[in-house]
Amino acid sequence: MFKKQAKRLALWGGGTLAAVWAGLANAGIFWIFDPKGTMADTNLHYMIIDVVIMGAIVGITALLVIWFMWKYSKGKNRGKYDAHWSHSNTLEVLVWGIPIIAVGFLAYFAVKGTFEINPYNPTVITKHMAPKGDPVHVDVIATDWQWLFIYPQYHMAVANELVLPVHTPVFFRLTSTAVTSGFFIPQLVGMIDVMPGMRTKNALESDRIGVYQGIASDYAGAGTSWMTFPTKMVSKEDFQNWVSKVQTSPKTMTYASFNRFAEPYINVNHRVVYFSNVESGIFDHLMMEVMHGKTWPLPPAMTENMVAYMQKQAAEHRD
Amino acid sequence: MLVQVPGGWNPLLGRLAIDQIPYTNPILAPLFVAVVIGGIILLGLITYYQKWGYLWKEWLTTVDHKKLGVMYIILGLVMLFRGFIDGLMIRTQQVWANGPQSSGVFGAVHGYLTPFHFGQVYSAHGLIMILLAATPLLVGFMNIIVPLQVGARDMAYPYLNALGLWITAAAVALIMISLFVGDFAHNGWFGYAPIFELQYSPGVGVDYWIWTLELTALGTTLGGINLIATIVKMRAPGMTWFRLPIFTWASLSANIIALTSFPALQVALFLVACDRYFGSHFFTAGFGGNLMLYTNLFWLWGHPEVYFVILPAFGMMSEIFPAFSEKPLFGYITMVAASFAIAGVSWLVWLHHFFTMGAGPEVNSFFSVATMLVGIPTGVKVFNWAFTMYRGRITYTAAMLWAIGALFLLLVGGLTGMMLAIPAINYMVHNSVFVIAHFHSMLLVIVYAIFGSVLFWFPKVFGFKLDEFWAKTMFWLFSAGTVLVFVPMYMLGFMGQTRRLDYVFNTAWHPYLVTEEIGIAVYCLSVAAFFVLLYVSIRDRVKNRVGQDAWGTSRSLEWLTHSPVPFYNFAVTPHVNARDELAWRRHNGINEAQPTQYVDIHMPNNTGVAIYIGALTFVLGFALTWRVWWLCLLSLVAIIVLMIVRSWRGDPGYIITAAELEKMEREAMQRQQQVEGHLPHHGGHAVPSGAMAYEGQKVSPLGTPPSSGDHH
Questions:
Q1: Which residue ranges traverse the bilayer (chain A) (predicted)?
Q2: Which residues of chain B have pLDDT under 50?
Q3: Alpha helices in B102-245 (DSSP H)
Q4: What's the number of domains chain B is made of?
Q5: Which of A269, B4, B297, B658 has its CA 20 to 30 A from that of B373?
Q6: What is the ipTM of this complex?
Q7: B579 and B515 together in one domain
Q8: Thinking of the domain A131-295, which architecture would CATH place it in?
Q9: Structure confidence by residue, pLDDT tens digits, B236-275
Q10: Cβ B495–A32 below 8 Å, yes or no?
Q11: Chain B contact for A190 (CB, 8 A cutoff)
């Protein structure tokens, strides 16, 4: 009786949860399954190949185990018992052969995919680029704990918001001031590490207008959780209008003012700042300085008992 | 030469100061009071029942591999609980601090943990679960079972064995004291360069992390040396390599990994310590430092370590499946080959922990394919367990349920592992909670195998079985918790949730976070069921007593001696005739054959040196953390002096005479008679010619206890 009730409860509970989940899934919250750009499309393509092949093997194995569990259960007399059977050449060939073939098959796709979305030269983008595709270049700098996106072609920069035109290849150069973090826009492009004194690259292209979440995907200290940034894919005209708007921002940026910007700051209120007339070469200047030993030390107040610091920052925001 | 540290320092106390004790912290202060009260009660009880002498003589100074193993396992279970509480705190923070409208208490903007405190909790969770829970639990089992399975009286180096335990215990003490004195690291369990450098972590947390890791690495390396020596040199006569029980094979492959990989960790951490103490620039961003070098060095150890913990778990499963299928393991030789294939490939895959570092596609391709190769021997193992059940006679004991649970988790972990091995997929889910769910699937394989082994081998060590009903209740609750926590976590990974978020910005994830929290609550119930299991089993211990072969279907050598195992393991070293020796003897009707004569045996003495050195390594770690230089020097000198003195004196050991042995064996057999209701007797089957039950003794029928030979 109790068992039956428990079973019913489990069924109902499971069903309800599944329904809730399914409902939310329709809202497109499974970002990895809902890519909006060439790079993310390719990621999903390989995920499907892998899951189909491995899923088949794992699924069949699971069914086999369940069948054996049922058939050879003691006292049920469903299957023949053989106290000594422990070897079969045919089965040995199968148990080694199936994984070897599967791995060989997947290895081909793994290598192919690695080259296709190689962050330094993603052939899915570069191969189909028009000769005069006019790509947009963005220099990404992660600070403790904000993002600065410098558009060197337009001599402007934006903090904590990324705006890009559709149908245009975008090439990123990335570095960091103080510590390591990760640059990640789940629906557009996979993760790439952002490291101080080092330069990584990435790229993306999208033909779908929309706002996509950007995330700092690697732990960089206390403010990491708030290092999120909206990524707006807009039409080419809207992009030009937006560029003109940013270029009229009263705030400007030199390497000296960049240094002040890069002071530790937890972006709890998601402030977005536009900079015009940005001095060129900030990215390379920063790289060089970090390699020569520049750091942005954190005061103990920001690494031990965060309470006092968080209160101070909250108070500053009220002004 | 030494770097200046922010904050105060004085020659007497180093960085220690009263403000380093978090007495104002609303979570830690009450916990501290509870720990102190609990500690006083415990010490009071030991004093009241006058158990200090017993504790010292029988446990703290012992060199008996079984008692050391039991202490390893208790240590591991305590830390498993501590790690679980950390996990509970992580899940609670994430479900609470979800969305900009979520409330905050105790000074946190959202939730109840400030970012830095949250960082410490998950760093401690990871470090504890892998190095101070899983590792001691597995080392404990290897300690107990391996000497029994090879037919030895003890480990090759009993004193070294005790030393390994007490150094591991020192590491545990160090991480526990970081709760109440200073901070722990916030840089994740594996550490990020350069966030662990002094500029970005000025407190003592990272120093605690360094020395805890160094001590546990040292302890585990010592254990590895011992286990390898035991397996290679201490096998009973007739125990050829291909008669070795499969768990022992797994232990051998695992400890070869440990012995070769832990030094890489020790060197990497030593370099981190150089950066923090001497101001060198191994892993800084500037001055020629290379921060990704640290990541490479760490995972050069870190990935082999993953297989160091999973291989013994596979070995445990390979023992449980045949015992409850009443059949030999399918494909023994390929199982051994698969273990060593995994161990070998483990050296070639470390870079898959950071495909996103930005290495070229050639490098990533190499490590991708190498990683997928691991899937081949692992797949073979899964198939072999399945075919062990095939044509078997399966009894669904609780131990078997845990082993089957482990098998299914391995399928899930394998599927997701093959996804992560492909960089094109990895870029999307690396550092997401999908990875967390994947490696928890794999680590839960280990936890399942361990709980299965606790049930399977408990009667061997303590002489009575654990209660099946509560063991199964615990299994089902634990499995329900696993599903409720990790299915939503996999889904959240596909939704793009990254790991280590102390504030979760997306409210659309809320239902899934809530489901995970419910799963944690179910885990709490399974922990409660575990305590009930222990209580009920100990209460009914007389009723549940067992003889030598606790399950009636056991197969390997450890089931040939009494339960509980006497301190000398085997009165007379058994002679091994076949791969599954006990199954072979049972088949031939000589499974209860007793030795015809006893001879004197030589045993090692207890020693207090191991626990003294363990305590001193704790003092050394603590002094290094707080930069109390005089204490560092003092404890280091004391350790070296103790080691020299001990080496000088050596251990002559002592002799158990044949007469004493006979008396103890007679008593043990009487106890067994009470349990099984008859005296050991010869089954009367035809015994193959050339068979030998004990060293130098032909098989002979026995109804009466043997004479003790010429040692009177």
A1: 9-33, 45-70, 91-111, 170-192
A2: 682-684, 701-712
A3: 115-127, 135-150, 158-177, 205-233
A4: 2
A5: B297
A6: 0.91
A7: no
A8: Sandwich (2.60)
A9: 999 999 999 999 999 999 999 999 999 999 999 999 999 9
A10: yes
A11: yes
